[in-house]
């Protein structure tokens, strides 16, 4: 399957980095979280984090498939190994991304201005290669999710073809003077179908919620974090649940994550797969992807969950 490697740069994130470099030692007021919502201590993981070998999964290994099922149904995410990306390739991808953030603000904004509303081709460079490899990871996961729902293996990969919407999120978190007063990223579910996230090797900070308790996602070098987003919750009519997660900062180290958000074509409806519906399981959500993405941007700013506003 061929995929377009064209991406739009939508925005350059808020420039906390420059504030820190300029000697600002208090988080700007708009980042401060009300006391009752601040990141508190997290719990120890009750059981080991699910680690799935995608090589074994592609070879139809039954044990790996069962592990995937348990990870997706119990956690909503897993760490993917056996994805075929060499440690040196991943290290280079991270280093190229860091270089971008180290550019002076004006340089970053130049990229943003030139590319805004335009299509930026990143073909031929390492990030382009990374996006192709990540797409392969997403496909393996989508094929296996289809199998878990007793659908044709290519059901989702066909739906997520050429014109589907993929967002590449570069998240940069500078060291923060008051990590307990702010979130790197406040609690949210992703508006994607699935997200494939590559996190800086030595800086943790990603946390997820299960049964109202927050847990740290441990760092497993070269493993990618794959999580379920809202679109897959909707397509599966609630069988899969999108993962509530957040990012906390620390005083010592900067942190970078590279998140690939896979979604549907903008013009498509996001609605449950018809084969999954019957009298006992009526459709629970429906919206056009375009409207969904617009709504998500707005709702995220209010701190609510978009998917909760769509339930029929
Ligand atoms: O930085 C991370 O590890 C997670 C980022 C994230 O959740 C997002 O961009 O939606
Ligand atoms: Fe996220």
TrEMBL record:
Record has Membrane as a keyword: no
Name of the protein: Fe2OG dioxygenase domain-containing protein
Organism: Hordeum vulgare subsp. vulgare
UniProt KW keywords: Iron, Metal-binding, Oxidoreductase
UniProt cross-references to Gene3D superfamilies, sorted A to Z: B-lactam Antibiotic, Isopenicillin N Synthase, Chain
Molecular function, one GO term: oxidoreductase activity
Span of domain Fe2OG dioxygenase: 162-264
Transmembrane segments: none
Similarity comment text for this entry: Belongs to the iron/ascorbate-dependent oxidoreductase family.
């Amino acid at each position: 399957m061929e995929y377009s490697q064209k991406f739009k740069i939508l925005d350059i994130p808020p420039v906390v980095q420059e504030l820190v470099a300029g000697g600002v030692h208090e988080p700007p007021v708009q980042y401060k979280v009300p006391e009752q919502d601040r990141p508190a201590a997290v719990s120890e993981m009750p059981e080991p984090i699910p680690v799935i070998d995608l090589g074994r999964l592609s070879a139809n290994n039954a044990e790996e498939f069962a592990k995937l099922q348990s990870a997706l149904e119990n956690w909503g995410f897993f760490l993917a190994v056996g994805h075929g990306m060499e440690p040196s390739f991943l290290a280079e991808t991270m280093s190229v991304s860091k270089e971008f953030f180290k550019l002076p603000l004006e340089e970053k904004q130049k990229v943003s201005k030139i590319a805004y509303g335009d299509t930026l081709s990143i073909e031929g460079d390492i990030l382009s290669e990374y996006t192709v490899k990540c797409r392969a990871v997403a496909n393996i996961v989508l094929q296996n999710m289809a199998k878990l729902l007793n659908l044709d293996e290519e059901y989702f990969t066909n739906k997520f073809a050429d014109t589907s919407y993929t967002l590449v999120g570069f998240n940069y978190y500078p060291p923060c003077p008051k990590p307990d007063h702010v979130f790197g990223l406040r609690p949210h579910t992703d508006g994607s179908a699935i997200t494939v996230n590559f996190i800086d090797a030595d800086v943790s900070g990603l946390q997820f919620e299960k049964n109202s308790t927050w847990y740290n996602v441990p760092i497993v070098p070269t493993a990618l974090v794959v999580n379920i987003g809202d679109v897959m919750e909707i397509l599966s009519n609630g069988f899969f649940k999108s993962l509530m997660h957040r990012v906390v900062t620390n005083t010592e180290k900067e942190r970078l994550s590279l998140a690939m958000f896979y979604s549907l074509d903008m013009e498509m409806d996001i609605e449950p797969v018809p084969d999954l519906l019957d009298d006992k399981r009526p459709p629970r959500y429906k919206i056009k992807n375009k409207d969904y993405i617009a709504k998500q941007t707005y709702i995220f700013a209010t701190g609510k969950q978009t998917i909760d506003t769509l339930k029929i």
